[in-house]
Amino acid sequence: MVDKNEFRVAWLVPEVGLGAYWQPVLREFTKVFKNTVFYTGGVWPGFDPKMPGSSAIQLVGKTSFVETTKIDTGYDRGFIVVSPSIIGYLLKFRPQVVFPQAFSLWTVIVALLKPLMRWKIAIIYDGSSPNTDFRDSSFRTFVRRILVRFADAFVSNSNAGKKYLMEVLNVPENKIFTKTYLVPDAGALLKRLEETKPPNLELKRPIFLYVGRITARKGIKTLLEACALLKNQGYTDYSLLIVGKGDQREELESFIKDNNLEKQVMWGGWVEYGSLGSYFQQADIFVFPTFEDVWGMVVPEAMVFGKPILCSNGAASCELIAEGENGYIFDPREAQGLAEAMRRFLDNPDLIKSMGERSRQLIAKTTPETAAQAYVEVTLFLMGNG
């Protein structure tokens, strides 16, 4: 029988923009498999090397994104440049199970070295979206179909990711473990809330909140168009608070002025991550109108704070929405549908509390502990097939 303390596991995640969410998962995973290394191209803002789980993180060179095609309402297309020095790290560590993320050069390296190193491979796939799946690229699809043949298992963060793996890359369903692993650490979020002085918003309720980048991909223009429709229907007793920064703000400010929405729409500007909890807490309904997001961490974060969710079907995190129970899903290309969803809360304010509580109940089932357990199960599965 294999000793878990001696068993070596490597994670290869080139980019960790959501690294703050990997750390608590690593904290739990390393309680079972202590000999674990998480290789990445750079740590995230606010990284604390003293936090449990952080000791497993190993920096490997630098990672950069090379843009080849600019997409206005979607992810820009391109490729990730990663450090080839990962080869030396892997040859030295000699892991028995490797979790490479998606289909970067690191995944190619792991696949090519598999015959020599004889490790098991479980590809991590965060989620599915048009400009990350490249369904319209026969070359990329061909390369990915080759790579998946080297993998012994797959871990998908969403059902959309699982569907892509099966339908496009022809991965057998019994090789795919579907489990939400990009999850908020509720304890950490609520602790930060206690340590943060809440802002004095003084906004008309109910308060609809958007948090994120101010760019065309995020669909904020659709949200403002919905507000304009509501105004034309006589709905003005509410506020929309937009928190974030980005290159589209000037355009959106012009739209707000042209449609006389200054009394409804407020700008929160850029807010440090550690202070966002107080904005979530004071809001009534969270809105995520994105055209394309592989996941969308702000949705489960808002659920931790007990908020109803209006989520576009462009975000994979819409899978967390139980339609009519804790929120509504809409098409980000249709402002009318979003306006109708917002109007439900304006006409029935009692829904805010009941749906918010349902959000809290649903997200309580998805934690760093459940995410880590999913990876433990995959590792044990691969150990058993050694």
Describe this protein's structure.
With 386 residues, the chain is an alpha/beta fold. The chain folds into two domains: 9-183 and 367-384, Glycogen Phosphorylase B (Rossmann fold, 3-Layer(aba) Sandwich); 187-363, 3-Layer(aba) Sandwich (Rossmann fold), CATH 3.40.50. Helices cover 39% and strands 18% of the residues. The chain is built from 14 helices and 15 strands. The protein has helices at residues 19-32, 86-93, 105-117, 130-133, 138-148, 159-167, 186-195, 220-232, 249-258, 276-282, 298-304, 335-347, 350-363, 368-384; strands at residues 9-13, 36-40, 57-59, 64-69, 77-81, 97-100, 120-125, 153-156, 176-178, 207-211, 239-243, 265-269, 285-288, 309-312, 327-330. The strands form three sheets. It has a seven-stranded parallel β-sheet, sandwiched between helices. It has a six-stranded parallel β-sheet with strand order 12-11-10-13-14-15, sandwiched between helices. Strands 4-5 form a two-stranded antiparallel ribbon. Strand 6 (97-100), helix 3 (105-117) and strand 7 form a beta-alpha-beta unit. The longest helix is centred in the last third of the chain and has 17 residues, at 368-384. It is globular, with a radius of gyration of 22 Å. The termini are close together. The model has no long low-confidence stretch (mean pLDDT 93).
Q: Can I get a quick summary?
A:
This protein has 386 residues and is of the alpha/beta class. The protein contains 14 helices and 15 strands. A seven-stranded parallel β-sheet has the order 3-2-1-6-7-8-9, sandwiched between helices. Strands 12-11-10-13-14-15 form a six-stranded parallel β-sheet, sandwiched between helices. It has a two-stranded antiparallel sheet with strand order 4-5.
